[in-house]
Specification:
It is built from 14 helices and 12 strands. By secondary structure, it is of the alpha/beta class. Helix 4 packs across helix 13 and helix 7 crosses helix 8. One zinc ion (ZN) binds next to loops.
Length: 386
Amino acid sequence: MDAKAGARERLRGVEKTVLGLSHRLHAHPELGFEEENASLWLSEALREAGFEVERGVCGMPTAFSARSGNGPLHVAICAEYDALPGIGHACGHNLIAAMAIGAGIAAAKVADEVGLTVHVLGTPAEEVGNASGKVLMLERGGFAGIHAAMMVHPAPAEMLEAHLIAASMFDVRYTGKEAHASATPELGINAADALTVAQTSIGLLRQHLRPTDRVHGITTHGGDAPNVVPAHTSARYIVRADTLEELKDVRKRVYCCFEAGAVATGAKLEILGGDKPYADVRYDHEISGVYRKNAEALGRQFPTLPPMLARIAASTDMGNVSQVIPSIHPMIGLNTLPAANHQPEFTAHCITPVADKAALDGSLAMAWTAIDLATTPELRARLLKS
Ligand SMILES: [Zn+2]
Ligand SMILES: [Zn+2]
């Protein structure tokens, strides 16, 4: 039996485990850095499949690192498993995790035969937008010795190299002074007005942003009572741009808008976070091509995208990995339009038979890609040198 057939047979043997994990995670959504059940369930499945597993790596209780095989080429498959507040697995990270487990176990079956060491890395908190799991694991040596990295992400349609841009998430706090809002308003410093001025300034700034820039946020605290001048307000914002370099520029301009709020009202401004942004994804086109062939061999198709998906601009901490390790981040289609990621309708799509089929296809396409990296001489040599 050849290596790919061996991997396929191994995956068949753990289909129930893989889909069971997807469904279990979907039923128990956990937020970033709180994924206690997910990290336990996933690492147990890998341990049962013969992986050496270390939990709580890189100073993060819900991160894990699992390895199998002893070949010279080290390939990492990244598992994400955090959910979104209020709407559960609306980004389908239950499927990302299930595919990482399926791919890891399937590839591990033939790892020594093809000269591979398979790593499944449990990378928490992808949705947090700053100092996330992969960012911290990269800093702390969690990706040391890895020659290539991959993961597959659910989406409305199949996309080989979606446009994934740089992003920075930060918190803003204004501190003013309380006063009776009617009796003695002249004694107050209005922190809610500061936020209003900032939001108005950002609205005006939009005319002068590049079409590829994004600014969006929420008010996390707007005041406590209508008859007390708000002394404390806060907001959480994300700024995005095509590259880290462009991000610096747009972030500076957005910070100026928040300063405008402070200047206009006399409230004190603090900006927290934003210090460990997500980088844009730099695809290894050759590995993308290998994945595409394997996905197509399983009957998956990469269609011409409708305009809405062609101009998509999301971000991921896989971008930071891709800047230093040859990486891919293909999207697997669940045929969900008009529903898309981060909508509750998409949550519902991540637990259907279509999603289950995608989870198994994504698992095998990644396992086969890992095998191809190990068995294509020129590609293998390039990765070993990287
Ligand atoms: Zn998401
Ligand atoms: Zn996601």
